[in-house]
Amino acid sequence: MELYALQKHLAEFTRAGATLVAISPETPDHSLSTHEKNKLAFDVLYDQGNRSARDFGLVFELPQVLRPIYEKLGIDITSYNGDKSFTLAIPATYIIKQDGGIAYHFIDADHTKRVEPSFILKQLALS
């Protein structure tokens, strides 16, 4: 859902001089499915084993007690991520400047809280 919302504003991001990129622990096959389903016109990069997310301190292991619930919902994390780690990345949004500095970031362990594309666009105008 978040990727689709970003896609809807892609032209605005481009006009603001930004390059939109998503990073996902999903294997390229699963990521391609997400890419096609949401008709994404921006890159979704593969973060194998959540290595980049781990570097940013954004990884947690799904508790053992929740794993059967995910399975009943048809969410096979190990298949999607291509490993047996049961690790998930905390969603995060970064605006990275040309010099590599971070102009803005949004991180919330509650995966239902995301920054709105319109707010990202406002932050781009400030940076």
How would you characterize this protein structure?
The protein is an alpha+beta fold and 127 residues long. The chain has a single domain (2-126), classed as Glutaredoxin (3-Layer(aba) Sandwich), CATH 3.40.30.10. Helices cover 39% and strands 20% of the residues. The protein is built from 7 helices and 6 strands; from the N terminus they run H-H-E-H-E-H-E-H-H-E-E-E-H. The chain has helices spanning 2-8, 10-15, 28-37, 51-55, 67-72, 77-81, 117-126, and strands spanning 21-24, 43-46, 59-61, 87-89, 92-96, 102-107. Strands 1-2 form a two-stranded parallel sheet. A two-stranded antiparallel sheet has the order 3-4. Strands 5-6 form a two-stranded antiparallel ribbon. The longest helix has 10 residues, at 28-37. The radius of gyration is 15 Å and the shape is globular. The chain starts with a helix and ends with a helix. The model has no long low-confidence stretch (mean pLDDT 90).
